[in-house]
Amino acid sequence: MSSQVTIVTGRKNRGGGFVLSGVAWIVGILFVLPVLWMLLTSFHSEEDAAKNPPDIAAPLTLDGYRAFFDTGPWPSIANSLTASILSTALVILLAFPAAYALSIRPVKKWTDVMFFFLSTKMLPVVAGLLPIYLFAQSVGFLDNIWLLIILYTSMNLPIAVWMLRSFLSEVPVEILEAASVDGASLSRTLRSVVAPVVTPGIASVALICFIFSWNELLFARVLTGTVAQTAPVFLTGFVTSQGLFLAKVCAASIVVSLPVLIAGFAAQDKLVQGLSLGAVK
Question: Which residue ranges does UniProt annotate as crossing the membrane (predicted)?
Fold first, then answer.
């Protein structure tokens, strides 16, 4: 009797697993399909890209990519890389000791501190745009890449502290006590003991902060001009009064998305490990 129940239960579990797998595949295809369509359109001519209904079997060409690179996107891409990488590095350097203080060595009323960090993300970004613009204008900081680095650091710091705290709370207390017995200083403990244990968590936080910084448009659009223009702002320049050149826009979007895609694929193992580490207590 028990064996029959086990067989029936196993069949139900397999059936449920197939259904969930099918749903996961459908959702994945729905997410990837627009990207694949954009990739295909980037290899079409402007005439074929503008057809309605679109012609999937249209001849492929690199004209959209040639037109994009002829516009000189490298300064904007370099600005995005600079702002994203430096702001992410600053976020990790500041969030790591803060998360340590709020998890392994909790301060008084640490829940209030965490709520304060979270409350900073509740404010609409556009609400702080005018004061920041006026301040940057008064100190001569407009169209300066360092202004974006400071803004991206402050914007990503609260979420980084929240995530790192969940990762650091999984660090065994025994290894910290062993480090303390061996006479390790706080900085040595953070660098040589805690950091190697939560490396996947740090990698996942860094990747998320990099993506947020790379994709930010509002502040970059308003606070920069030509010197500190970022890649997303550069993309908006393709929407002109002359019309929308769809093939060139798709080619530009693919090229601008490559750094994020490469970083995501390179760190996908660490990202999965890090999110799993912080998800289970």
Answer: 18-40, 81-102, 114-133, 145-164, 193-214, 245-267
